Amino acid sequence: MTLPDPAAAQNQTKRILSIDAMRGLIIIFMMLDHIKERFALHIPILDPMDLAQTSPAMYFSRYLAHLCAPMFVFLTGLSAWLYAHPANQAFRSPSRFLAKRGLFLIVLELTAVYLVWAGSISTIFLQVIWAIGLCMLALAVLSKLNYWLVGLLGFAIVIGHNLLSPVHFTPDEWGYNLWTLMHDRGYLTDTGPFTIRVSYPVLPWIGVILVGYFAGPLYAQSRSPENRKKLLLSLGLGCYALLLVLRGFNLYGESLPWESQQSTLLTLMAFFNFTKYPPSLDFLLITIGTGLLLLCLFESLDNRFIRALTVFGSAPMFIYLLHLYVILLCYSLCYAVFGANQGDRFGVDSYYLIWAFAILLPLALYKPTQWFAQYKHREKHLKPWLTYF
């Protein structure tokens, strides 16, 4: 495949390259998870993190995907700060920018994303794109507050929402629908031709996008790359240290305490088995902490692999939609050729095949993504709709 011209890459700021590389990496991890959802759905495991059901291969494959949602939401908030503070220009409110894109993502979740899964899933799942859209709408309003108040509110939600875990509503209680949207995943409707299930309760993710916005000055033009790397390293290691204390002593941040298992590997799996729906404090510490350390690493790297990642990261919505439909097409072709070999579905039992497909898919989608990214950056001033992708 043809890689980006290094000379052209130098025309971008270092921070843009590192952020795009981070997005590109989590998009590849996301591909792995979606391939598993399409080709291993027949495996009777409700939760790939459940030690009583899962295998190490499935557990750690799922763990890579854990990085996706927290860092996408965090970087969305950070990017909103960068939009509001363009280099050598006056502040501009990000509210209109966020509101339009938030509404676009919600519509996208209910149309193009839903259609990908509609053939095999009868329920409308309000998932990560919907959640990011709502988070952007929330930030569109809350970004009008004082910067420090935005940060305080974000950290209060991220750190404190685990205190809300004992609060529950039954479907016949007045607060059920609001609480399902905000904190406890469940069905908004479970009767009629369509059922609607909230997979991503949005309150903790609003906290993450606010924290991301608060972290925006890490990438201010006035900050040197060396200083930024030191801060990213310190913050990432700080997340890890806090996690080790909270989780090590089962103090706070996770509803399910860890216990020693039959082997060292299983004990490690139990220790790092964190709640994603909604994301616990421990879950956010491990994922965002890892993301900060990777951003620090990408600040110092400039090689073929990193430049390839920046191509995916510079057109994230395009590659997100493209890979979903390509996976669906590949599944449909396999079903047509080989038939239903797993009940009424086609599927594979080997995780080696899942991983092999996850390696081949980014290679196959690199050229169309590179073409679109170049077209987008060349034409976006004349065609503003391109910036939504």
* pLDDT < 50 runs, ≥5 residues: 1-15
Give the helix tally.
Answer: 15
Q: Into how many domains do the coordinates divide?
A: 1
- Name the average pLDDT: 90
Strand content: under 5%
Helix-strand makeup class: mainly alpha
Terminal Cα separation, in Å? Answer: 22 Å
Domain Heparan-alpha-glucosaminide N-acetyltransferase catalytic: 15-222
Protein name: DUF1624 domain-containing protein
InterPro entries: HGSNAT_cat (IPR012429)
Transmembrane segments: 63-85, 97-118, 124-142, 149-169, 202-219, 231-249, 281-298, 318-338, 350-366
Topology:
Blueprint: H1 6-9, H2 14-39, H3 56-66, H4 68-84, H5 95-117, E1 123-126, H6 128-142, H7 147-160, H8 176-182, E2 186-189, E3 195-198, H9 203-214, H10 225-248, H11 264-271, H12 281-300, H13 304-313, H14 316-338, H15 351-379
Parallel strand pairs: 1-3
Antiparallel strand pairs: 2-3
Question: Can you tell me about this structure?
Answer:
It is globular and about 60 Å long. The chain is mainly α. It is built from 15 helices and 3 strands. The protein has one domain (6-388). Helix 4 packs parallel to helix 6 (128-142). The model is unreliable at 1-15 (pLDDT under 50). 62% of the residues lie in helices and 3% in strands. The protein has helices spanning 6-9, 14-39, 56-66, 68-84, 95-117, 128-142, 147-160, 176-182, 203-214, 225-248, 264-271, 281-300, 304-313, 316-338, 351-379, and strands at 123-126, 186-189, 195-198. Strand 2 (186-189) and strand 3 form a beta hairpin. Residues 15-222 form the Heparan-alpha-glucosaminide N-acetyltransferase catalytic domain. It holds the Pfam family HGSNAT_cat. The chain crosses the membrane at residues 63-85, 97-118, 124-142, 149-169, 202-219, 231-249, 281-298, 318-338, 350-366.
